[in-house]
Design a protein that fits this description.
Blueprint: E1 7-10, H1 22-37, E2 45-48, H2 50-58, H3 67-82, E3 85-86, E4 92-93, E5 95-101, E6 111-115, H4 121-129, H5 132-149, H6 163-175, H7 189-207, H8 215-229, H9 233-242, E7 250-256, E8 267-272, E9 284-289, H10 293-298, E10 304-305, H11 309-312, H12 314-331, E11 335-342, E12 345-353, H13 358-370, H14 376-382, H15 388-391, E13 395-396, H16 398-403, E14 406-409, E15 411-414, E16 417-423, H17 426-434, E17 439-443, H18 451-456, E18 459-462, H19 470-478, E19 481-484, E20 489-492, E21 497-500, E22 503-506, E23 510-514, E24 519-522, E25 527-528, H20 531-536, H21 547-562, E26 566-570, H22 574-582, E27 588-592, H23 602-611, H24 615-640, E28 644-648, H25 662-672, H26 676-686, H27 698-703, H28 705-724, E29 730-735, H29 741-762, E30 769-774, H30 777-781, H31 783-786, E31 792-795, H32 797-805, H33 816-821, H34 838-852, E32 857-860, H35 868-876, E33 881-884, H36 889-909
Parallel strand pairs: 3-4, 16-17, 17-18, 18-19, 26-27, 26-33, 27-28, 28-29, 29-30, 30-31, 31-32, 32-33
Antiparallel strand pairs: 1-2, 2-7, 5-6, 5-7, 8-9, 8-11, 9-10, 11-12, 13-25, 14-24, 15-19, 16-23, 20-21, 21-22, 23-24
Helix pairs in contact: 4-5, 5-7, 6-7, 13-14, 13-21, 14-21, 21-36, 22-24, 23-24, 24-28, 28-29, 35-36
Bound molecules: phosphoenolpyruvate and magnesium ion.
GO molecular function: ATP binding; kinase activity; metal ion binding; pyruvate, phosphate dikinase activity
Keywords: ATP-binding, Kinase, Magnesium, Metal-binding, Nucleotide-binding, Pyruvate, Transferase
Enzyme class: transferase
């Protein structure tokens, strides 16, 4: 048997792996190999595979026995290439150790630099570089990073500052008494030596252990810390949010150090091949001279825009521009990369597909097609469906902005508009958001421990840090509005106040931020619709020529070409219908008719109907409701202009329509002339212990067929009315909560009888379908029988989920989060279809239904219809359409197109069956 390979080398023109091996080498490792292969200057190193991580957790945190020898060979390879030696007293090899999961993952151990330094090798580095300050700066950084992430010297609960930072500040105070904001670069070699001693003392004091001197022990500790961090709390929070399975594991990259901190000819930077916030094709990013990479992202010093590198290092900048082009033409996507310049020479440390806002994703995808870098099909796959929501996100009302005063400016790190009450601490932000407050998280800078607060907040505002700071990266990915590096802000954590130019804001005060412009305003500003919503919904022509709208439209047009699964909408009014159609809906998939009974006077007629003591009185009350309902349908049919409309008959239990409190009962009594006692008695009669499983759905129409009769009449009379105007009408009448074929048959009889009556009265023909919801498990189990009568099925996955899982859709909040944490369920089943459980029932119903009636129309109308993963699932099981709320229509259309493309791709790559 071939020996297991756990270590893959890269750099210096030779790589064992390549860019396609992300599952095994992690994103970082695979791309370091790929960059090596295309001739970019990558310092040599090796990747320990994700399989080792899996082994580590499956075997009580131990390693495969072959690993040590392979790691030693990897180190030997670097030594050979560079002519240095690990732990050597003349030419010591120093390495960086970085984690690297398949997708980059904030929250995990990130980087340890300068590993291999100790009390002896630091002297060697001092001699070899002729630069004592540099050597001791490297050493103190190493102790700081290693002490923090490997040995656990971290902030304790209640502490506001990192312990190492406190030691640095103390030393600075001693060296530069009374001077504030002295940069670390001002500390000389002697000062740094002292810092090393104090750091070591801190480590000993906090951990009881001495700082390890042996480079091999250091390496072992660092590798263990990377694997250990895969299961830390922050990484798990992140994985849960993004649905990343814990089985994936992380890889570890060990790479020879290059130094951006050797002096003014060196530097480190992070850059994007295009602007990740707007998508514009400009070289974007930032750098710091005489700094190591961590300084750029840590927000300790504010970096300079990458364009200015041209003045400082023209040769390296020209090379970097070339690299930018090479990366895009090779990876054919926007890249986010890290580089270091060591004494004027450029090195590449990482590249990956850059995270971007929804706005940027759409623009980059569309422009790359124009540039012939990618096809339109690829463009569709480049925009995460969920992110499309962001381009529909609100902006500030223009008039409100004009009237408001900008109190501070920062970097526009996450576009959109957000207003909220400010909180300076993640926990308090979470509590406030749970109490339904709109929250802005305001921090000097953020770190992964703020993640929960960032998730809870509408927007994030920081005083320090650049466009690649933690706050900016995470906000962009989450689609949160973010302004960072607003240096005029003075955040006083201790007193919970924010001071801006002398003005004080307490925790809980309102601020507003514009993440597209990077502006901060006092107070709560009114928000306005996005340009796309302005054009499509508000019918304003102003924004029609905006690039944002044109790009969006282009993408949607391509989706229409690719898609098989149609997208309908859940709408109960003409306005909602019009909005959904503007977003490209191909009809209504669910019109919840009960919603029409809540407006104005209608509720009174509805209540009269419920309170009626006999059929005669009930019919009288229903006759009052008929014109309302007919008018609504007329409005909807007109907006649909011939597109189909699935109209569901009354579904909720009747008690939902009645008042329960004494004063409201008295009000109603006066209005409709029924005594309060009678009303209270009826309310009591209708009380159910479990209304969701009680007298609702088709059970209402069966007990009171006159309700269904009225609804059918309203639909057909409206149809006749609209048809007369030359507009086609395609009603699809849907019976809810069916479990027994007979239930459906009884309701179909009513519908057909009324249709005949109306057709006769109006001397016209009516085209319609009658079908059912599949929303309780029995319906799925006997779908073949039900399909004998049903002309269509629509999966009501809200009820189907609650009845299949036996979990109330309204009361699961108390335990579902725990289920997520324990990974009992991967995603909230009420948001994303439980594919292995509920999904299996759906698949079965599809097969049974089609067996009886091959052309049966199949759709879904539960909330899942707007969830991209569920949309893709619906495509796979062969539904004809999904239906979702109007503003989710673009997201669902994109997901549907992506599903069709991935199916086509799979068909192309599947092995062809041999001809006999
Ligand atoms: C459903 O159950 O999925 C559904 C669409 O119906 P409702 O949410 O109105 O119960
Ligand atoms: Mg339902």
């Amino acid at each position: 048997m071939a020996k297991a390979k756990y270590v893959y080398i890269f750099g210096n023109k030779k790589a064992d792996g390549d860019g396609s091996m992300k599952a095994l080498l992690g994103g970082k490792g695979a791309n370091l190999a790929e960059m090596t292969r295309i001739g970019l200057p990558v310092p040599p190193g090796f990747t320990i595979t994700t399989e080792v991580c899996t082994y580590y957790y499956a075997n009580k945190r131990t390693y495969p026995k072959e690993l040590q020898a392979q790691v030693e060979a990897g180190v030997a390879n670097m030594e050979k290439i560079l002519g240095k030696k690990f732990g050597d007293l003349n030419k010591p090899l120093l390495v960086a150790v970085r984690s690297g999961a398949r997708d980059s993952m904030p929250g995990m151990m990130d980087t340890i630099l300068n590993l291999g330094l100790n009390d002896q090798t630091v002297i060697a580095l001092e001699k070899a570089s002729g630069n004592p300050r540099f050597a001791w700066d490297c050493y103190r950084r190493f102790i700081q990073m290693y002490g923090d992430v490997v040995m656990g010297v971290q902030k304790r609960p209640g502490e506001d500052h990192e312990p190492f930072e406190i030691v640095i500040d103390q030393l600075k105070e001693e060296l530069f008494p009374g001077q504030h904001h002295v940069e670390d670069t001002k500390i000389d070699a002697e000062g740094l030596k002292e810092l090393v001693n104090r750091f070591k003392a801190l480590v000993k004091d906090r951990t009881g252990k001495a700082f390890p001197n042996n480079p091999w022990d250091q390496l072992k500790g660092a590798v263990g810390a990377v694997f250990g961090s895969w299961m830390n709390d922050r990484a798990m929070v992140y994985r849960r949010k993004y649905g990343i399975p814990s089985e994936w594991g992380t890889a570890v990259n060990v790479q020879a150090m290059v130094f951006g901190n050797t002096g003014q000819n060196s530097g480190s930077g992070v850059a994007f091949t295009r602007d990740p916030a707007s998508g514009e094709k400009v070289f974007y990013g930032e750098f710091l001279m005489n700094a190591q990479g961590e300084d750029v992202v840590a927000g300790v010093r504010t970096p300079e825009p990458v364009a200015l590198l041209k003045n400082e290092q023209p040769k390296a900048f020209a090379e970097l521009e070339k690299v930018r082009k090479t990366l895009e033409s090779h990876f054919k996507d926007m890249q986010d990369f890290e580089f270091t310049i060591e004494d004027g020479q450029l090195f590449m440390l990482q590249t990956r597909n850059g995270k971007r806002t929804g706005l940027a994703a759409v623009r980059i995808a569309v422009e790359m097609v124009k540039e012939k870098l990618i096809t339109w099909e690829t463009a569709i796959t480049r925009v995460p469906a969920e992110q499309l929501d962001q381009v529909l996100a609100p902006v500030f009302d223009r008039a409100a902005v004009k009237a408001a005063k900008v109190i501070a400016k920062g970097l526009p790190a996450g576009p959109g508009a957000a207003s909220g009450r400010i909180y300076f601490n993640a926990d308090r932000a979470v509590l406030a958001a749970e109490a339904k407050e709109k929250v802005l998280l305001v921090r000097v800078e953020t770190s992964p421990e703020d993640l929960r607060g960032m998730i809870a907040a509408e927007g994030i505002l920081t005083a320090r840090g650049g466009v690649s700071s933690h706050a900016a990266l995470v906000a962009r990915q989450m689609g949160k509005v973010c302004v960072c590096g607003a240096s005029a802000l003075h955040v006083d954590y201790a007193n919970k106040i924010l001071i801006v130019d002398g003005q004080e804001f307490k925790e809980g005060d309102y601020l507003s931020i514009d993440g597209t412009l990077g502006e901060v305003y006092a107070g709560e500003l009114k928000t306005a619709a996005s340009e796309i919503v302005q054009v499509l919904v508000e019918k304003s022509l102003d924004a029609k020529d905006s690039a944002t709208f044109r790009n969006f439209k282009q993408l949607m047009d391509w989706c229409a070409k690719a898609t098989k699964l149609l997208v309908r909408t859940n709408a109960d009014s003409p306005d909602q219908t019009a909005n959904a159609i503007a977003f490209g809906a191909s009809g209504i998939g669910l019109c919840r008719t009960e919603h029409m009974f809540f407006e104005g006077d209608r509720i009174d007629a509805m209540r009269e109907m419920i309170l009626a003591e006999n059929t005669e009185d009930r019919k009288k009350a229903l006759a009052k409701l008929l014109p309302y309902q007919r008018e609504d349908f007329i409005g909807i049919f007109k907006e649909l202009k011939g597109l189909p409309a699935t109209i569901r008959f009354l579904d909720p239990p009747l008690h939902e329509f009645l008042p329960h409190e004494g004063s409201l009962i008295r009000d109603l009594s006066e209005k409709i002339g029924v005594t309060p006692e009678k009303i209270a008695k009826r309310v009591a009669e209708l009380h159910e212990f479990n209304p969701m499983l009680g007298h609702r759905g088709c059970r209402l129409g069966i007990a009171y067929p006159e309700i269904s009769e009225m609804q059918a009449r309203a639909v057909f009379e409206a149809a006749v009315e609209v048809q007369k105007k030359g507009i086609k009408v395609k009603p699809e009448i849907m019976i809810p909560l069916v479990g027994f074929p007979k239930e459906l048959q009884l309701q179909i009889d009513v519908v057909n009888r009324v249709a005949q009556e109306v057709a006769k009265e109006k001397k016209t023909k009516l085209n319609y379908l009658v079908g059912t919801m599949i929303e309780i498990p029995r319906a799925a189990l006997v779908a073949d029988d039900i399909a004998k009568d049903a002309q269509f099925f629509s999966f009501g996955t809200n009820d189907l989920t609650q009845t299949t899982l036996g979990m109330s859709r309204d009361d699961s909040g108390s335990f579902l989060p725990k289920y997520g944490e324990l990974e009992i369920i991967k995603k909230n089943p009420f948001a994303s279809i439980d594919q292995t459980g509920v999904g299996r029932l759906m698949q079965m119903a599809v097969e049974l239904g089609r067996k009886t009636r091959p052309d049966i129309k199949l759709g879904i109308c539960g909330e899942h219809g707007g969830d991209p993963d569920s949309v893709k699932f619906c495509h796979r099981i062969g539904l004809n359409y999904v239906s979702c709320s109007p503003f989710r229509v673009p997201v669902a259309r994109l997901a549907a197109a992506q599903a069709a493309l991935s199916e086509a791709k799979a068909a192309k790559t599947a092995p062809k069956k041999k001809k006999k």
